[in-house]
Design goal:
InterPro entries: Aminotrans_II_pyridoxalP_BS, Aminotransferase_I/II_large, AON_synthase_class-II, PyrdxlP-dep_Trfase, PyrdxlP-dep_Trfase_major, PyrdxlP-dep_Trfase_small. By secondary structure, the protein is an alpha/beta fold. The protein contains 15 helices and 13 strands. β4, α6 and β5 form a beta-alpha-beta unit. Bound molecules: 4'-deoxy-4'-aminopyridoxal-5'-phosphate.
Length: 391
């Protein structure tokens, strides 16, 4: 059999292109901002994870340029060997202090962080217990580990307990959950998760990709939001969202971080974050520390958007975060509406199976602290007009 046969059979993307409703890989001609030029036309950006709008913050951009000039374009090696800059260490220690953990370890991307943390920590006789709506990189981290992966129903604590009960007492257990769920925007039930973890001798890891800079005291994330920093064992996060860069991290105790530093293959055998990205993440973190009003503004604008969407008569998936999904139900309707909204000047992301149940497809809108109420009103007006028309 020709190994490329599956590629020949994969015709869906071409089919959608031919129908004019293919929603991916639209090219931007400007920077990631609240308004962008995409394929020659102005679009209001309601599909970015640039929650604090720091990709265009002058001090952040300047720090990137300076680092590029001072340290060159790349590190050409792993953190383990020649690829550690003093700046990586500064970033790690300031980040650990920010999220109230002993130490932090940075990885080249957020995706790689999950691969690297889970595969190092979850060994042959261990169990990793995941929320069903966890991010793909968590699933892949589980696959890369030698342990057994078990999933519980989304944010369903009875189901989590049912699973924990069945795991042999002799096995190590890591419960992994998104802090803020990336597609639904809802928050993990961390108090209950931590309680169950204590009861069943499990450890807790939170993926705070969408929590850092967004919820908790001054944007310190999900553990801080619940006041549970001393109950969460590992916080994972990314620099590609609120911190306007590229890269990822884990924050945990010295022992856990040191184990990962010396045993995680995606960490050891991959080049470190380049100087410009490292400087951007560090400066963005300092900016966040100096501006605790930014997450507050972000949350106020998100609440404004939610109200606008509800008042317009749209059915949204309830959340308390800047991720506000709107139900569009079938895949076909979602693709058609995404295209129409895009043509009318607003960028949103369609969410399709397997990221949702088959007839619960969504348009995921997300908000930035640098948006204005006027821009949000304009965008919601466009979305409502498209979604509520039945032609
Ligand atoms: N975890 C979650 C919950 C995410 O949403 C993402 C990115 N979408 C990642 C991890 C991966 O992060 P990165 O894009 O920085 O690799």
């Amino acid at each position: 059999m020709d190994i490329f046969e599956k590629c020949e059979r994969f015709t869906l993307a071409d089919q959608l292109r031919n129908e004019g409703i293919y929603p991916y890989f639209h090219a931007l001609e400007t920077r990631q901002d609240v308004e962008v030029i995409m394929e020659g036309k102005r679009r209001i950006m309601l599909g970015s994870n640039n929650y604090l709008g720091l990709t265009t913050e002058p001090t952040v951009v300047e720090a990137g340029i300076k680092a590029l000039e001072k340290y060159g374009s790349g590190c050409s090696g792993s953190r383990f060997l020649n690829g550690t800059l003093r700046m990586h260490l500064e970033l790690e220690s300031e980040l650990a202090a920010f999220v109230n953990m002993e130490e932090a370890v940075t990885f080249s991307t957020g995706f790689q962080s999950n691969l690297g943390i889970i595969s190092a920590i979850v060994g042959r006789n261990d169990y990793v217990v995941c929320d069903r709506e966890n991010h793909a990189s968590i699933y892949d981290g589980c696959q890369l580990s030698f342990g057994k992966m078990v999933r519980y129903k989304h944010n369903d604590m009875e189901d989590l307990e049912r699973i924990l009960k069945k795991i042999p007492e002799t096995a190590g257990i890591l419960i992994v959950t998104d802090g803020v769920f990336s597609m639904g925007g809802d928050i993990a039930k961390l108090p209950e998760i931590c309680k169950l973890a204590e009861q069943y001798g499990a450890r807790v890891m939170v993926d705070d990709a969408h929590g850092l800079g967004v919820i908790g005291e001054g944007g310190r994330g999900t553990a801080s939001y619940f006041g549970l920093e001393d109950k969460v064992d590992i916080i994972m996060g990314t620099f590609s969202k609120s911190l306007a860069s590229l890269g990822g991290y884990m924050a945990a105790s010295h022992t856990v971080c040191d184990y990962v530093r010396h045993n995680s293959r995606p960490f050891i055998f991959s080049a470190s974050i380049p100087p410009a990205c490292c400087a951007v993440a560090l400066t963005a973190l300092r900016h966040l520390k100096a501006h605790p009003e930014l997450p507050e503004r972000l949350n106020a604008l998100s609440a404004h958007a939610r109200k606008d969407l509800r008042d317009a008569g749209l059915k949204i998936r309830e959340s308390e975060t800047p991720i506000v999904p709107i139900y569009t139900y079938t895949m076909e309707n979602t693709l058609i509406k995404a295209k129409e909204v895009y043509e009318a000047g607003v960028y949103v992301n369609p969410v399709l199976p397997p990221a949702t149940a088959p007839n619960e497809c969504l348009l995921r809108t997300s908000y930035m602290a640098t948006l204005t109420e006027d821009l949000i009103d304009e965008a919601v007006g466009v979305i409502a007009k498209v979604l509520l028309s039945n032609e």
